[in-house]
Design the sequence.
């Protein structure tokens, strides 16, 4: 998919997401009408430490960086080769580092990388990806997506294996 089309799709998706995620219960005021019931409890999020353990041996392909898409064919990846470790490719360079959960929050890094030079656009995307990965604060699995929360938004991955 050309970069321009990818960006357009990402913008449309970003615009539609808030509407799609709005709960239907907002249409009616709580406690009004006959037979009103208590609002449903929010779904419990899985324990990040348990999720990390379940990801061991998996490999993921980066599909989106904070709603801005990614460069086609760059193949930025993320893998969990063993407990407490992650690694992958930024699209140009390989990286690896520790991953853990501390006080309920995801903590990644420091990351070590190879130092090959690539096209400027690839290097820019890789630096953004690795920079945000190092600032990760949360992780969740919403099939088919692996989502990593960062201060600037979400890194979105699909499973390779």
Sequence:
């Amino acid at each position: 998919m050309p970069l321009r089309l990818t960006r357009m799709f990402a913008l449309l998706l970003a615009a539609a997401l808030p509407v799609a995620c709005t709960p239907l219960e907002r249409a009616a005021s709580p406690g009004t009408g006959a037979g009103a019931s208590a609002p449903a409890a929010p779904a419990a999020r899985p324990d990040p430490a348990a999720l990390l353990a379940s990801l061991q041996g998996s490999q993921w392909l980066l599909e989106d960086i904070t709603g801005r898409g990614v460069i086609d064919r760059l193949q930025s990846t993320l893998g969990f080769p063993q407990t407490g470790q992650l690694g992958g490719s930024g699209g140009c360079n390989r990286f690896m580092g520790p991953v853990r959960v501390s006080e309920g929050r995801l903590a990644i890094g420091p990351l070590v990388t190879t130092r090959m030079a690539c096209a400027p656009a690839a290097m820019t995307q890789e630096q953004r990806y690795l920079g945000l990965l190092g600032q990760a604060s949360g992780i969740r699995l919403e099939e088919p997506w692996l989502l990593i929360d960062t201060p600037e938004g979400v890194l979105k991955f699909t499973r390779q294996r």
